[in-house]
Amino acid sequence: MPSFNPQFVRNFVSPGFGTEIIYSLVIIVCSLMIYFGTKELYELSSHKGIKYFRQAFLFFAIAYFFRSFIKFILVYFSANRILDISPRIFAPLLSQVTLFLFMYFSSMAIFYLLYSVMWKKWNGSSKKIYLFHLLAFIISASIILSRNVLIYLGVNIFLFIIVLFVVYTSYQNTKKKPKGHKHNLYVIYLLLSFFLILNIIDILIPEFLQIFQLFIYIASIIIFLMMLYKVLKKTGPS
Amino acid sequence: MAKRNKLEIIKDILTIIHSNHNSIKSTPLLRQSNISTARFKEYFNELIEKKFIKEVNNKNNKSISLTDKGFKFLEKYKTIVNFIEEFEL
Fold first, then answer.
1. Mind listing the pLDDT tens digit for each residue in A165-174?
2. Domains, chain A, ranges and CATH?
3. Chain B residues with CB-CB distance to A234 below 8 A
C-alpha cells in the first residue's frame, strides 16, 4: 500500500470520481430494482425466461460494481489503465482479479439477457448456459493475459457480433408472429448490450472513448431507467 | 384448440379448484383438467411440492384445496403472462 499520496487525494475529490460513483450507483440500483421487482413473478411461475432475465440484471449490477471499484483503484494509484498498475506497488491479484471479475460478469450479463429471449428457441436446454460461462471465462482470461489493445477491441467486437446475431434472429422470429409490436424491446436490449460494451472499452482503453464518456454515461442511465420503468409498469404493485 | 402451455395448465387446475368452493376431489379435478392421467399426476405432485395446493382430510374423504400461494398465483397470473409477452421471454 502506498503512503500518503496527494495526487490520490486530488483525484478522489475531483468531480470526475463523484460522477463515476453516482453513475455506477444509479445503474446498480436500477438493476437491483429490476432483479428484486421480478422476484415474486419468478417464485410463482418458475419460468426460465424470467429466471435468465433476472440473472442478467443481477450480473449487470455486479459488473457495474466492479467497474466502479476499478475506477477507484485507478484514482487511488493515479493510473490511467488498470493493467498499467505495477504489480510491485500492489498485490497483482487485486487489479487483475477485479478486471477478470468485471469482464466475466459483464459478458455473462449480456449472455443471460440474450439467453432469456432465446432459451425457447434453443429447446429450453439449460446446458447451453454452461457454454456461455465457459465463453465468458475465456473472454476474461484473454483480456488479463493479452495486454494488447487490438485483442481488447477484437474481444468487444466479437461480443457485439454475438449480440447483433441473437437480437436479429429474435427480431425475425417476432416479425413472423401475428402481433409483432414489440420491436422496440430489441432496440433496448441492443442498446443495453452496446453501452455495456462501450463501458468495457472505457475501462480497457480509456483514451479511446474519452471525449464521449459523458454521453455514454447519460445514455446508459437513460436506457437502464427505461428498462426499469417498463419492468415496474408490468409487474405492478406487489 | 391451441396447445396449452405449462402456466396455462397450472392456472386451469387452480381455477377449477377455486370455482368449486376451494374443495374438490382428485377424480373430478382430473376429468375437468382435460389432461392425461400421467400428466395430471406430474402437475399434481408439482403443485403440492410448490405449495400451491394441499390435500385436506374431511371425515373419510380427501379433497384438494388452494393454499395462499395458490390464490396468489391466480391473482398474479395475468401479470406473469403480460410480463413474459412484453419481454419476449
1. 888 888 777 7
2. 6-235 (1.20.1070)
3. 79, 82-83, 86-87
Q: Label residues B16-38 b or e (16+ Cβ within 10 Å = b).
A: bbeebebebeeeebbebbebeee
> How many domains does chain B divide into?
1
> How many angstroms away from the CA of B84 is the closest CA of chain A?
7
What is chain A's Cα-based Rg? Answer: 19
Let me know if residue B48 belongs to a domain: yes
What would the DSSP string read from start to end of A148-197? -HHHHHHHHHHHHHHHHHHHHHHHHHHHHSTT---HHHHHHHHHHHHHHH
User: What number is the ipTM of this complex?
Assistant: 0.90
CB contact under 8 A, A49 and B80: no
pLDDT tens by residue, A71-103 = 888 888 888 777 777 666 666 678 888 999 999
Please name the residue of chain B whose CA is at the shortest distance from the CA of residue A42.
B80
Predicted model pTM = 0.88
Of B7, B73, B88, the CB nearest to A174: B88
Indicate which CATH number applies to the domain containing B50: 1.10.10.10
The verdict on residue B1 lying in a domain is: no
